[in-house]
Every structure is written in structure tokens, then in C-alpha cells.
């Protein structure tokens, strides 16, 4: 691990005794106190802290909900209604948890687009980035299974449609689906196992988050200039600078979160989910939660069952390949005039896909969804590899400090203390 | 080394098996698959009745003359999943169509008497089925399958049990 400005020196006798047995305080010190942070970070770098807060919030509200929730097909819906009406502050716990999932995804999408804009996935951060993609996939699985738990109409039909995706797998598809269901259709065994997994997965996410932060500790943060920390002038210590900024951003985010919880608690959900699950009737418009809409639009854009499923999962796989698809050596889009434009086109395409995912699959919507789906893949598979070869990047600044202070310099961390290990480019 | 590895692999496999197998439908669920009887007498021509067998939705449709004719007068070559109507009903009972009620795309319940062929139309992603339950458009890859069933009398069927006189080969 890299050397840092100050190293932890235990003072009391107990601290010395403990540190020589388990250097926990030293680890915390080097990761969250003395850790060198590029001095040019913007608020886009606070979403990591916000995500950790959201994970913790989901686990706390979730465990409390689980104390009242009953994972049985005949009782689940009523138990959620009891949470809403009878349990003290049950409405608050549930609205926090249900809206919390949406907030979690807002934060993760901003976090991911931040990475794509600033090229944060490039060497030496590929593993860090891949761990992030794994977290994203686990989050989607968790949220999907959580949405099944209230056992309303959307729960039931969402579960039916998503589990049926696996029936597209040749030969073994139907076996896989029956193993997912534990029956011949979505039913009580399905609900029961989804609850078990919904309880488990967030703790697995927490485990991957630890690896994610460990990887971050090794390679350091990227920054808006996309160039490494070269001297102490380029960095400030994590505490107090990043700690206070992260806390402030988290509090602002909590206000945004609270606004949904208290003023529009059901806006992001579907009214149909307040109708108990009925296996004989599908709601006229079944749509997933907003955070799945772009992927849903891709699924529906392909007029073939297996093809649609492959495209949908491919849309996530291609994200994981970005570190190897992008051939440019320059990280930050600030210095990549063409990539910068393609990035914004890509953002618009993703938003459009989200909008189209909520529209009925007919006429012009289908055509638009096909064009956007095609562009989604072209962006990754054609634009990213070619841009690196043809684009002339703008000259990079000579240091992070220069981007903030101009050429005159200024105070930072003690010189030499904060350099990224020298093997990186 | 190799022997140890092989023994280890067999051990892991043997231990994994019960975990995977436990996810399959349990004995209770399988036992709930006992055949169900449906009385056809109250189903008037043009009506579709929904019943459940093994937790799965099944449509029992008493087809009108026009619906039967529409199902039979089809150029089979034009179908995505070609199957003559006669292979989807029981001999001597061309009016009774029994099919699974979940869309073969992703499992939604198609709406009866809707869509261009007045068979079924799936609201989820737009699959179209005709009055024989055959797919005629949209992302559904195959026809609505016919569950095993048998006529116990002229006005009663038993779903979950195949008659000895099987219909002509289900799939060509
Ligand atoms: C990654 C973190 C998590 C996410 C994204 C998440 C997401 C969700 C979602 C979207 C729902 C449906 C809310 C609704 O419409 O009612 C839900 C329900 C539920 N979740 Fe979670 N959850 C997470 C963690 C947890 C944890 C750790 C537990 C602990 C047991 C838990 C327990 C529950 C329970 C009992 C319900 C059903 C009650 C209800 O629907 O309000 N969740 N979850
Ligand atoms: S589930 Fe019927 S068309 Fe997709």
C-alpha cells in the first residue's frame, strides 16, 4: 500500500497493545483520515459516500420491516397493509424503504455516468470498476426481489415476466425456471425464497463494497482532470476535506430523499401494486420500476424472445467491458472533445430508452426503441474503440494543482507524501 | 494431486446437488398436481373459462362455428409455429379448446377475444394468438401449449390426465 502523509501512531498503552494485534485503527486512519484526495474533486465524487449511506439505510429499514412482514402468499399483502396501518411508524419504515430503493438507484446511476465521463474505469482502476458493476448487478437482483415481497399485482407479474426471461435459454430454460419458482408457476415457494435472498443479498453487496473500497485504497481516486496525483500539492487529506464534503452532500441528499418520502411517497411506485396478486389477470400496463425501464425497453425492442433476453443482459455485460473497449489513453472527457459529445448523446439515449420503456410497445415507440437500442450498443462497440484512434485530445494540464490554482501553486499535503505509486500512466 | 482434485470435485458436486434439488417443486407442490375436472355444460359458445391446474392458469374455450372455421382455414405455412387446429383439440370435440393461459413470451395472461384474430392478445408485449391459441404475431415464440386432458363424458373433461386415444402428434 502506498505511503501517506501521516501514518497512524498509537498513543495510549491500550491503543499500542491493540494495534500490534489487529492494526484496525491504522487501516481506518490510512483510508479515511490521511488518505490523499485529489484537490480538484467535485460533488460528483460524493456519491460513493451517499451510496454507502443508502445501503445502510436500506438494511436498517429492511430489517425493521422484516420484523412485521410475513413471507407467505396468503399473508404477505395483508402484512404489508398492516405495516402501513397498524404498526407504529410502519408507514414511515415502508416509505423509507420503498423510496430508498429509488434513491439508491439515482445515486448509483449518477456514480456510473460520472465514471463514464471521467474515464475512471481505465488503468489502474479496472478491478475497482468491475467490482462496481458487480454491486450494480446485485442491487438490481435485490431490488427486483424486494418488489415481489408486497405480493401485489405488479409484484406477481413482474416476478412472472422476469423469471420467464430464463425460459429463453435453449434446452435447460424450463428447468431453470422451475428451479427459480419451486413450482409450476410463480407462487408461495417463489415468494418465500425471494424473501430469503432479499435479506441475504444486501449483506453480500456490503461485502463487495468492502472490496470496492479496498481497491480504491490501492489505486486512489480519479479526478476531473483524469491525471494522477504527482506531488503533495495535488492532494488534500481525506479528513477533514472529503469527510466534511461527503457529509454535507449526504445531508442534502437526505433532504431530497425525505421530500419523496413525505410528499410523493407513492409517485415512483405503481397503483396496481395495491391490488393483491391475482394469477388469473395481468394488469393492462405492466411496467417495471423506473430504474429498470431502459433495460426493459431494450428487451422489448427486439422482436424475438431469445434475442431480446440476450440484448438485455448484453446491455449490462457491455458495461463491464468498457475498460477494454475504450482505446483512448486520456481519461477525462474534459480533454476529449469528441468523446465528450458522444457521452452526452449516450446519456440522452439512455434517458430516451427509460421513457420508451414505460410506453406501450406499438408503432413509433417500437421504432424509436430500436434506434436507441442500436445506438446503445454502437456507442460501446464501435464509437468507444474508434474514438481512441481518431480523436485528438486537448493538451493535458501538467498537474492537478495547476487546474485548480493556475500556475502559482499553493499549499497541499507534504511533498512526496501523496504520490500515486509510480507504475501508472 | 489430480486424484485429490477429482475426489474433491466429486465431493463438492455431491454436496451441491441437495442444495440445487431442494429448489425444485417439493412433494406437496407435485401432489397438488392431481387432475382437476371441469364441467363443460355451463360454458356457452364464445365463452372462455379460466381454471387452475398445478398452479398454472388454463383457458377452456367453447368456440363458435366461425371461430372453429377461422382456426381451420389457415395456410399452415404462414404460421410461426405450424400446427393444424385438429392437432390442438380432441377428436369429435372441435368446439372445445383447452390451452395454457400464460403467454409463451414471458408469461402474462393474454386477453380473450382480442387482437386481429379474435383469439387472444397479450397486453404485455403485444403477442397475438388465433382462435386455436396459435401464435400469429409478436415476440411469443410458440403456440399456447395444450395441457394433458381427457374427455370423461361429453360434457366433462379431466385436466392433468392424457386420454389413451392421444390426439395427432402435438408438434410436427
Ligand atoms: C440493497 C438494499 C435493498 C434494496 C435496494 C431493497 C429494495 C426493496 C424494494 C424495492 C422493496 C419493495 C418496496 C415496496 O414497494 O413495498 C423492498 C421490500 C422489502 N424489503 Fe428490501 N431492499 C434492500 C434491503 C433490504 C434488507 C437488508 C432487508 C432485511 C430483511 C429488506 C427487507 C424488505 C422487506 C421485509 C420488504 C417487504 C415490505 C415492503 O414491501 O415494504 N430489504 N425492498
Ligand atoms: S408476455 Fe405476452 S407478449 Fe410478452
From TrEMBL, chain A:
GO molecular function: metal ion binding; oxidoreductase activity; quinol-cytochrome-c reductase activity
Residues noted as binding a ubiquinone in the record, renumbered to the chain: 217
Entry keyword Cell membrane: no
A Pfam family per the record: Cytochrome_B
Ranges where the Cytochrome b/b6 N-terminal region profile domain occurs: 14-225
Keyword match Nucleotide-binding: no
UniProt cofactor(s): heme; heme b
GO biological process: respiratory electron transport chain
The record's free-text note on cofactor binding: Binds 2 heme groups non-covalently.
Cell compartments where the protein resides: Membrane
Annotated ranges, domain Cytochrome b/b6 C-terminal region profile: 228-398
Membrane-spanning intervals of the chain: 44-67, 95-116, 128-149, 155-182, 194-215, 247-268, 280-299, 305-325, 337-358, 364-390
Positions with a binding annotation for heme b b562: 97, 198
GO cellular component terms, semicolon-separated: respiratory chain complex III
Swiss-Prot/TrEMBL keywords: Electron transport, Heme, Iron, Membrane, Metal-binding, Respiratory chain, Transmembrane, Transmembrane helix, Transport
Membrane topology type: Multi-pass membrane protein
Binding site for heme b b566: 111, 212
Reported function: Component of the ubiquinol-cytochrome c reductase complex (complex III or cytochrome b-c1 complex), which is a respiratory chain that generates an electrochemical potential coupled to ATP synthesis.
Oligomeric form and interacting partners: The main subunits of complex b-c1 are: cytochrome b, cytochrome c1 and the Rieske protein.
Record-stated family: Belongs to the cytochrome b family.
Name of this chain's protein: Cytochrome b
Organism whose genome encodes this protein: Enterovirga aerilata
Amino acid at each position: 500500500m502506498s505511503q501517506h502523509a501521516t501514518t497512524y501512531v498509537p498513543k495510549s498503552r491500550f491503543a499500542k497493545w491493540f494495534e500490534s494485534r489487529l492494526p484496525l485503527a491504522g487501516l481506518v486512519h490510512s483510508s479515511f483520515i490521511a488518505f490523499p484526495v485529489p484537490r480538484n474533486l467535485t460533488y460528483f465524487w460524493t456519491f460513493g459516500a451517499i451510496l454507502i449511506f443508502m445501503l445502510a439505510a436500506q438494511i436498517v429499514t429492511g430489517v425493521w420491516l422484516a420484523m412485521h412482514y410475513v413471507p407467505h402468499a396468503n399473508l404477505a399483502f395483508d402484512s404489508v397493509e398492516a405495516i402501513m396501518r397498524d404498526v407504529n411508524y410502519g408507514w414511515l419504515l415502508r416509505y423509507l424503504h420503498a423510496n430508498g430503493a429509488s434513491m439508491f438507484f439515482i445515486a448509483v446511476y449518477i456514480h456510473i455516468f460520472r465514471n463514464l465521463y471521467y474515464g475512471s474505469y481505465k488503468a489502474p482502476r479496472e478491478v475497482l470498476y468491475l467490482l462496481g458493476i458487480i454491486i450494480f448487478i446485485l442491487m438490481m437482483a435485490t431490488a427486483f426481489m424486494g418488489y415481489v415481497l408486497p405480493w401485489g399485482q405488479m409484484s406477481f407479474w413482474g416476478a412472472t415476466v422476469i423469471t420467464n426471461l430464463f425460459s429463453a435459454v435453449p434446452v435447460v430454460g424450463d428447468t431453470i425456471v422451475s428451479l427459480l419458482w419451486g413450482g409450476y408457476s410463480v407462487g408461495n415457494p417463489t415468494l418465500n425464497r425471494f424473501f430469503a435472498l432479499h435479506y441475504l443479498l444486501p449483506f453480500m453487496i456490503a461485502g463487495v463494497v468492502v472490496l470496492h473500497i479496498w481497491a480504491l485504497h490501492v489505486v486512489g481516486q480519479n479526478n476531473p482532470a483524469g491525471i494522477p496525483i504527482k506531488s503533495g500539492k495535488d492532494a488534500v487529506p481525506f479528513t477533514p476535506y472529503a469527510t466534511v464534503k461527503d457529509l454535507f452532500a449526504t445531508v442534502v441528499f437526505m433532504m431530497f430523499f425525505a421530500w419523496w418520502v413525505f410528499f410523493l411517497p407513492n409517485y415512483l411506485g405503481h397503483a396496481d401494486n395495491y391490488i393483491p396478486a391475482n394469477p388469473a389477470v395481468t394488469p393492462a400496463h405492466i411496467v417495471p420500476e423506473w430504474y429498470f425501464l431502459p433495460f426493459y425497453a431494450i428487451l422489448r425492442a427486439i422482436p424475438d424472445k431469445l434475442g431480446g433476453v440476450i440484448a438485455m443482459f448484453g446491455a449490462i455485460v457491455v458495461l463491464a467491458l468498457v475498460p477494454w473497449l475504450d482505446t483512448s489513453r486520456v481519461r477525462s472527457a474534459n480533454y476529449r472533445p469528441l468523446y465528450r459529445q458522444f457521452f452526452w448523446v449516450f446519456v440522452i439515449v439512455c434517458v430516451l430508452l427509460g421513457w420508451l420503456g414505460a410506453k406501450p410497445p406499438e408503432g413509433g415507440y417500437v421504432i424509436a426503441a430500436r434506434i436507441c437500442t442500436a445506438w446503445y450498443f454502437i456507442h460501446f462497440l464501435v464509437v468507444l474503440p474508434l474514438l481512441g484512434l481518431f480523436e485528438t485530445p486537448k493538451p493535458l494540464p501538467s498537474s492537478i494543482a495547476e487546474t485548480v490554482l493556475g500556475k502559482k501553486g499553493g499549499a497541499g499535503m507534504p511533498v512526496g507524501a501523496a504520490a500515486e505509486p509510480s507504475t501508472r500512466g | 494431486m489430480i486424484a485429490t482434485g477429482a475426489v474433491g470435485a466429486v465431493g463438492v458436486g455431491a454436496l451441491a446437488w441437495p442444495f440445487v434439488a431442494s429448489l425444485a417443486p417439493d412433494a406437496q407442490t407435485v401432489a397438488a398436481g392431481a387432475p382437476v375436472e371441469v364441467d363443460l355444460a355451463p360454458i356457452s359458445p364464445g365463452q372462455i373459462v379460466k381454471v387452475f391446474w398445478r398452479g398454472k392458469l388454463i383457458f377452456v374455450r367453447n368456440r363458435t362455428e366461425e371461430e372453429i372455421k377461422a382456426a381451420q382455414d389457415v395456410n399452415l405455412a404462414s404460421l410461426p409455429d405450424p400446427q393444424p387446429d385438429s392437432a390442438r383439440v380432441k377428436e369429435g370435440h372441435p368446439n372445445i379448446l383447452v390451452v395454457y393461459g400464460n403467454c409463451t413470451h414471458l408469461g402474462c395472461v393474454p386477453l380473450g377475444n382480442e387482437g386481429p384474430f379474435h383469439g387472444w392478445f397479450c397486453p404485455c408485449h403485444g403477442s397475438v394468438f388465433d382462435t386455436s391459441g396459435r401464435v400469429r404475431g409478436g415476440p411469443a415464440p410458440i403456440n399456447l401449449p395444450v395441457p394433458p386432458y381427457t374427455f370423461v363424458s361429453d360434457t366433462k373433461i379431466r385436466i392433468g390426465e392424457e386420454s389413451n386415444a392421444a390426439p395427432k402428434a402435438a408438434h410436427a
